[in-house]
Amino acid sequence: MKVFLGLDGGQSSTTALIGDEDGRIVGVGHAGPCNHAGSQGGHARFVSAVGESVRSALEHAGLNDTTFEASCFGFSGGPSDKEVITRGLIKALNYFITHDAWIALAGATAGEPGVIAIAGTGSIAFGRNVDNRSARAGGWGYTFGDEGGAFDIVRQGLRAVLRHEEGWGPPTLLRGLLLSASGASDANDLLHRFYTDEFPRTRVAAFSPLIDQAAASGDLIAQDILKTAAQAIATFVTAVRGQLFLPSEVVPVSYAGGVFRSAVLKERFRVLVELQENNRLVAPRYGPAAGALLEAYRVAGLACTLKNVGD
């Protein structure tokens, strides 16, 4: 039996899927995060996460150590510091080693061309057309970009609270919510906490549901922050679409990331995306690990429809 491997290596976890020639998932494996392979201790964590997830998937499939017909690996942070290590860890006849946005798009559109907006801690839009040409917009990191991501949403929320405390901004429910959640005494105290190692970027971003909570309670400041975030993400989508598709082409646009749990932001994003003629907003069909598996089939020259996939 020929088997195929798709792997999603992210900042929080690693998932491996093994499929047979008919697109049926036969093995699933999970492990810890595998980003930052070049950092101190990162190499060992990367090797452990990739190896453990694939071994677990092989065990689930009832297979011993095997050579995959084709494999696709999508890594957070890109493949540049991971490709050589990956080829040494996993045996395959064909490799496609890429970034996480590529497999997120492949999963969301079930392998079809389109554009995906990804807004978690940070933000980026990525697309691929029928000629397999790709483009991106955003993803510059929290210092120079990531507009519309969770970190930026919280940053805008704290700025609104600071403006009110200093007397040059309107009141907002965000003050009480942020101070209560953080234990800070006032906005200035919270500002200084956010600059410390105690509050890394991901921990700050985790406060973003509070902005959504305030917006749902009618807070106009919070609503404006979320709508502005949606505008930024939609602008990325427009930029990517313009690089890859003709105005007359119907383009599926999908989304991924925790920011889209906000009903306010998601609805505003939908409206803005569909303002452009021939954009079609679609819910993600599959997750990124399934997208990686679909790409493994594509690399092998197969067009498979996935079966029994639940991710």
Short summary:
The protein is built from 11 helices and 10 strands. With about 300 residues, it is α/β, with parallel strands linked by helices. About 50% of the residues are buried.
Topology:
Blueprint: E1 4-9, E2 14-19, E3 25-31, H1 42-61, E4 70-75, H2 83-89, E5 95-99, H3 100-108, E6 114-119, E7 123-128, E8 134-138, H4 150-165, H5 174-182, H6 187-194, H7 201-205, H8 208-216, H9 220-244, E9 251-256, H10 263-275, E10 279-281, H11 288-299
Verbal overview:
A five-stranded mixed beta sheet has the order 3-2-1-4-5. A five-stranded mixed beta sheet has the order 8-7-6-9-10, with helices on both faces. By secondary structure, the protein is of the alpha/beta class. The longest helix is centred in the C-terminal third of the chain and has 25 residues, at 220-244. α4 (150-165) packs antiparallel against α9 (220-244), α8 (208-216) crosses α9 (220-244) and α9 runs parallel beside α10. The protein contains eleven helices and ten strands. It has two domains: 4-109 and 286-299, 2-Layer Sandwich (Nucleotidyltransferase, domain 5), CATH 3.30.420.40; 111-284, ATPase, nucleotide binding domain (Nucleotidyltransferase, domain 5, 2-Layer Sandwich), CATH 3.30.420.
- Tally the structural domains: 2
How do the strands line up in the largest sheet?
3-2-1-4-5
User: What is the percentage of strand-forming residues?
Assistant: 15-25%
- The CATH topology of the largest domain, please? Nucleotidyltransferase, domain 5
Order of helices and strands: EEEHEHEHEEEHHHHHHEHEH
CATH class of the largest domain: Alpha Beta
The poorly predicted ranges are: none
Largest sheet data: 5 strands, mixed
DSSP helix count?
A: 11
Briefly note the structural class of the backbone: alpha/beta
Spatial extent as radius of gyration: 21 Å
Give the strand tally.
Answer: 10
Q: Please state the average pLDDT score.
A: 93
